[in-house]
Amino acid sequence: MAMDKHHSQLPLAKCLRQHCASEWVFRDVPSDISIVVEGGIFSLHKFPLVSRSGRIRKLVAGHRDSDISKIELLSLPGGPESFELAAKFCYGVNFEITSANVAQLCCVSDYLEMTEEYSKNNLGSRAEEYVEVVVSKNLEMCVEVLKQCENLLPLADELKIVCRCIDAIASKACVEQIASSFSRLEYSSSGRLHMNRQTKCEGDWWIEDLSVLRIDVYQRVITAMKCRGVRPESIAASLVNYAQKELTKKSISKVDGISGSNGHEKVVVETIVSLMPVEKLAVPISFLFGLLRSAVMLDCTVACRLERRIGSQLDIATLDDLLIPSFRSAGDTLFDVDTVHRILVNFSQLEDSDEDMEDVSVFESGSPTNSPSQTALFKVAKLVDNYLAEIAPDANLKLNKFIAIAESLPAHARTIHDGLYRAIDIYLKAHQGLSDPDRMRLCRLIDFQKLTQEAGAHAAQNERLPLQSIVQVLYFEQMRLRNALFCSYPDDDHKPMHQSWRINSGALSAAMSPRDNYASLRRENRELKLELARMRMRLNDLEKDHVCMKKNMEKSNSRRFMNSFTKTIGKLNIFGHSSSRESSSPSKRSQVTDSKLTERT
């Protein structure tokens, strides 16, 4: 249909070109040569053409024996429009070289060999000068020239028009970014220079301009920008803007009934993914999920790369992000559970790799604190519980898939199991045909000891739970009540207090990761060892004092010394009564003193 439309408009275009040519071609001299370009006929004169164009000169000279009156130029870049501009230049007609036609002029002058060899200040040198002096200094002009070059490839690439414009765009964007950064520098109250984060960055105005480029040219521009050091945030913003415009435009074309394949959209998605900055938080998580939806729908090979990247920053995702529609058969689930499960597996593998890379010396260091990965784990656990509650009412959701999502995180990820209990209760309500073994298998996911008082009270009266689960709930509720009572009256009995400490300690240790729990135990062991060492030192000091006193008593045989020693001991009242009245002989007093000192130590 497009070809028929083209042929129907060709005679009209031909008439217009002939009419326009009659305005600037010599009217008093009859035409002696006709130039045919893509069906359009230009009635011109040989002399102005051969004086500027080396190609036409060679063609005319090759037919010197027979007077040539018609030449067809095949595959002329830019078509009849470009040749008309070249012909005007040959006739000395003035026209303006702009960013909209300079790429065509460069290519057609190369095709027609309009170089300095055949005429001074020929079209080729004029067009090249405009590119170097004017276009390369302006980013918008470079983008417009690149847009024109899309239909002139590969000749425009061979003439280095494309690479020069790309280098100019990358350099200009980098300069604009640096200038914008300097404009945001401010002096603080202390006199220090700092960057004002609240001021909007004005150096990324080029993002909108690049969205008009074709995907292959756009890819080369972004690659050059990354090599020049443009900010990852600016690169990511440009990718988001380009993807939204390009994919939305194709979606509207499909709705309007315009025929087209998914091949272009697939190329766009795969190219955008390959251009994303490696920095973790440079690309918004919502955009990553949007690309993932498109990749799954188009069956792109980059879906696995997106799943890994999303898994590395899953803690900042929202529930709406995870609700990916299923694009499979009608009998499948409403949401794509398999893709979410793979994302969770990537997240868990990342956690495992982080723990494996930790050196043992880390556990030996100071007190353990919640690492960012542990905080992220808590956030993801809450997100997963909400996701399970959202997909639980789906009648097509299989039990194995539900359990796989719930078990994708380690046991210490959930400090409280209220969210998981809620999701399981919704699933049991929506799937009442589950067998007793399946219900037991599902309820084994819940640690009823980690339910809050409100959730435990609800579970104790929940008829959808298996009987064994209800018994567990009642048991832990009774233990919680006992511990609460004995904590109020701790002097009555110490055994429940030990039980309470054991249960609470278990909940606390479960709230910590194995790494943090291990470090906490190591710290407690060090403190106990220090206390034991202090007690040994005190015991050694007492033993030394005892030995010295015994030697002094053996050396002295005078009764006066013993009387004074006895009086001194009586005044100190170490044993609660006077020692002089219990013994009359020095040897007996010494034995009593030795025995009591031994008991004391």
- Which stretches of 5+ consecutive residues score pLDDT under 50? 1-20, 255-259, 357-372, 493-510, 571-601
Q: What overall form do the CA principal axes indicate?
A: elongated
Strand order of the largest sheet: 2-1-3
User: Helical stretch count?
Assistant: 28
Q: Could you give the count of β-strands?
A: 5
The biggest sheet, with number of strands, parallel, antiparallel or mixed sense and barrel status, is: 3 strands, mixed
Distance between the termini: 109 Å
* Strand content range: under 5%
Report mean pLDDT, rounded to a whole number: 78
Oligomerization category of the chains in this entry: single chain
What class would the helix/strand composition place it in? mainly alpha
- Fraction of residues in helix: 55-70%
What gyration radius follows from the Cα positions, in whole Å?
44 Å
